[in-house]
Amino acid sequence: MALNNYSKFYYGQTITRTNLYLNFQEDGDPLTARVEIGAYTLTSLAGKVATALNAIGDYEYEVSVDRASRKYTISTAGGEPFSLLIFTGANSTASAFGILGFTGVADLTGSNSYEAAEGCGYEYITQTPLANFSDFKHNKEKQDASVNETVEGLTEVISYSTIERMKCDFPLITNVTPQKYIRETATGLQEAEAFLDYCITKAPIEFMELHTNSEIFTTCILDKTDKNSKGVGYTLKEKVRQSLPFYYEIKGLTFKKIEG
Question: 163 lies in a domain?
Fold first, then answer.
């Protein structure tokens, strides 16, 4: 089926050797925490940051996220003041503060809570409602299932989990402006390419069926495309046969639900 609204994806929360350090300060003592390397979602990275801070600091740290803005807030549970050494930290060249949205040219000091200046990672909003959409709850499969017939003649299925998949097409992707009936953006093609380039790394993402409701989401990975059955390749097809040059589409996307 086709949806009646744009959908949204959050992506890009990956920690590598180039952005894993958190330099901070408690009661005058500079400290260095390290976020575990890995690919995360907006939600799961918050927990990893809290774990990293709590493993090194004496205070108890909490990391929350405003899902609409993708902005993190780092606070102490007991209200103790601390500092985030964004600018003067010893590991500023490999700092995690940038990807977390704590940008700027000055340390954050004198408070027990700091909100990021920018959102963490990126968002991709579709330019049209998804076409040929089939929700996760409508596509289920028992994983590693074996079907046996008992001595009583009954059929039993032995499986340890259920796989859920969402299927969809992106019917129109373009930089052409102005637009009347689709989401207008002069970088629509580049936005789609950046999102799909990330997806084919098999990193987790968050899918929101309704782009205006960031609270209801599903954590998933790209499972397959028309181009590649393993989800590690894609083809954006220009719609020249439909007399729509500079308009692209991608069909046969399948996303697999995973634990957040």
Answer: yes
